[in-house]
Write a sequence for this structure.
């Protein structure tokens, strides 16, 4: 081995290892302790010193081969950024769904109270009423393919005109809540954006190229 | 957010953009434009194409910035998107080239990366012609597995660890391939190294 020829002991890196370290050192990736050992080796090895010089020249060549970036590059990128996009949905505005939820709760409580004439409900009863309201709505959803099921639900729940009205508003609010949660506004595509969409879809379909 | 005289990290800037501070994306552009354009230039061999694609990549990244996972480096993500976009463009170019050339006598997998001769734009005039051509030829002559790492290291300025993560390679493999790739470059550019 070359390392042996240079009189290095077996527990020291051989010459090829030092050459590899030279590359790591040039990239700033060599740990400090190894760097110290490399410097010691370099003091005694002309071949490695030459290799280091060549690496520095190569690095300089590649560095000097860089092209300048157009002065207006930043401004052209910023100008090409779409006017809308994830900005329209992030951060998601929770105020509207929260307001609808509160309204829903109030309506459900009112519905429960109106279904219990002559009696002031406790907080627990109001809570049960709200739960019953959601359960009924879920049941209606599950049975919405069946008129018989719907009739059963409505027959049980809607025994007065007031209840019918409250239940109608309740269902309306529930729909508003669902719409606000599911809504994803589509931005109007800018010309640059349209170009990207075209380019992305015209590629050979190897999946999402933007995945991290 | 990093405070004081320290530069904000990429992740800080991304977070600021996501909070609605659109100008911070311009800071990210400033930070990466040189590396990105030069990385793409070495792949596409054309300065105008490199600029156009770099812009597309940055806009694409902005559009899906909310998908960015901060556990990864922003640069890793950016260069992965850039590499995918460049590969797509090279394939499209190659398709065009093949359709134009009836006498297609090429073969072999390595030919995927044979492209038309580089065009000379206004940016080409700024380079030393002979040396620039020699460097490009030396890079082009590298097998792809070495070339991609050399480009990521020397033009993307990515550290070994990020390259390893991006290419899903062990760190030792990255070191080894960069070492061997540079040895090949040195052989090809021997005349210029002894100047």
């Amino acid at each position: 081995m070359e390392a042996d020829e240079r009189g290095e002991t077996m527990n020291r890196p051989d010459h090829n290892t030092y050459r590899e370290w030279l590359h790591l050192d040039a990239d700033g990736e060599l740990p400090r302790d190894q760097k110290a050992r490399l410097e010691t080796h370099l003091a005694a090895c002309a071949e490695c010193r030459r290799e280091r010089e060549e690496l520095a020249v190569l690095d300089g060549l590649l560095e000097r081969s860089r092209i300048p970036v157009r002065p207006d590059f930043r401004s052209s990128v910023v100008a090409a950024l779409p006017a809308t996009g994830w900005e329209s949905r992030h951060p998601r505005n929770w105020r509207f769904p929260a307001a609808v939820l509160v309204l829903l709760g109030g309506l459900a409580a009112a519905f429960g109270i109106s279904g219990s004439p002559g009696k002031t409900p406790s907080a627990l009863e109001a809570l049960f009423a709200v739960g019953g309201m959601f359960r009924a709505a879920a049941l209606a959803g599950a049975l919405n393919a069946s008129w018989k099921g719907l009739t059963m639900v409505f027959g049980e729940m809607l025994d007065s005109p007031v209840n019918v009205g409250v239940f109608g508003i309740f269902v309306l609010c529930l729909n508003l809540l669902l719409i606000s949660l599911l809504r994803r506004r589509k931005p109007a595509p800018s010309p640059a954006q349209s170009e990207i969409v075209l380019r992305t879809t015209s590629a050979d379909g190897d999946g999402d190229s933007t995945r991290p | 957010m990093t405070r004081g005289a320290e530069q904000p990290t990429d992740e800080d800037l991304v977070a600021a953009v996501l909070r609605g501070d659109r100008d911070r994306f311009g800071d990210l552009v400033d930070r990466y434009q040189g590396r990105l354009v030069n990385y793409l230039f070495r792949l596409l061999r054309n300065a105008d194409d490199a600029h156009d694609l770099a812009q597309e990549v940055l806009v694409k990244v902005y559009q899906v910035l909310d998908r960015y996972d901060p556990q990864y480096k922003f640069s890793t993500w950016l260069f992965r998107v850039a590499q995918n976009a460049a590969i797509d463009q090279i394939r499209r170019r190659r398709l065009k080239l093949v359709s134009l050339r009836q006498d297609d006598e090429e073969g072999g997998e390595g030919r995927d990366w044979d492209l038309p001769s580089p065009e000379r734009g206004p940016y080409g005039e700024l380079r030393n012609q002979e040396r620039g051509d020699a460097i490009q030829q030396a890079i082009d002559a590298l097998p792809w597995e070495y070339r991609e790492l050399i480009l990521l290291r020397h033009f993307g300025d990515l550290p070994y660890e990020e390259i390893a993560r991006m290419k899903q390679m062990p760190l030792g493999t990255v070191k080894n391939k960069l070492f061997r790739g540079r040895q090949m470059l040195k052989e090809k550019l021997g005349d210029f190294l002894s100047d």
